[in-house]
Amino acid sequence: MKISMKFIVLMSAILLALSSCTTRYYLVRHAEKLNGTSDSPLSQTGHARAAVLRDTLAGKNISQIFASTYTRTQQTAQPTATANNLELTIYRPDTTAGLIERLKSVGSRNVLVVGHSNTIPEVVHGLCGETVTIADDDYDNLFIVTIKRGWGQTTKTLIKTTYGPPSP
Predict the structure, then answer these.
(1) Residue 139 gets which letter from DSSP?
(2) Cβ atoms 8, 127 nearer than 8 A
(3) Contact 167, 139 (CB under 8 A)
(4) Residue-range domains of the chain with CATH
(5) For residues 156 and 146, what is the distance between their CA atoms, to the nearest angstrom?
(6) pLDDT truncated to tens, each residue of the chain (168 aa)?
(7) What gap in Å lies between CA 11 and CA 151, rounded to an integer?
(8) Phi, psi dihedrals of residue 123, rounded to the nearest 5°
(9) Distance from C-alpha of 57 to C-alpha of 18, rounded to nearest angstrom
């Protein structure tokens, strides 16, 4: 039986595609809040930033969105959820270790996580081992963690960028 070189190349490409997967996490702190109360909603500026986040992530094929139990994280995530016809997955911010484990199991997907200045750095570190910080008045950070798995190897990368108008 003679097997053509084209068949071998095609089968190799199919096996490579099946054996590798990429997971991309987009991680942000909630947008600007209205006041200092414990469950403050977003300010007008915060709502505008949430719309910019939606626009920034347009075309990124977001398939799941995590937001904490706080109103401000859910309001930050909702425009992106609505644009992608998704429900928010709500998590308790005091269970960051559990959230990290849950995120690690999402498979080959693009995921948005909206959290807080103290939880997003923990999640970034838990996913890729990198250390980031978010100042109390900083709302424009966008951290993108990419994890590629395939052929017995895993590579993790972190991109630190911003979206929307600069924070003060």
Answers:
(1) -
(2) no
(3) yes
(4) 21-162 (3.40.50.1240)
(5) 6
(6) 567 777 666 665 555 554 579 999 999 999 999 999 999 999 999 999 999 999 999 999 999 999 999 999 999 999 999 999 999 999 999 999 999 999 999 999 999 999 999 999 999 999 999 999 999 999 999 999 999 998 889 999 999 999 999 998
(7) 15
(8) -65, -45
(9) 26
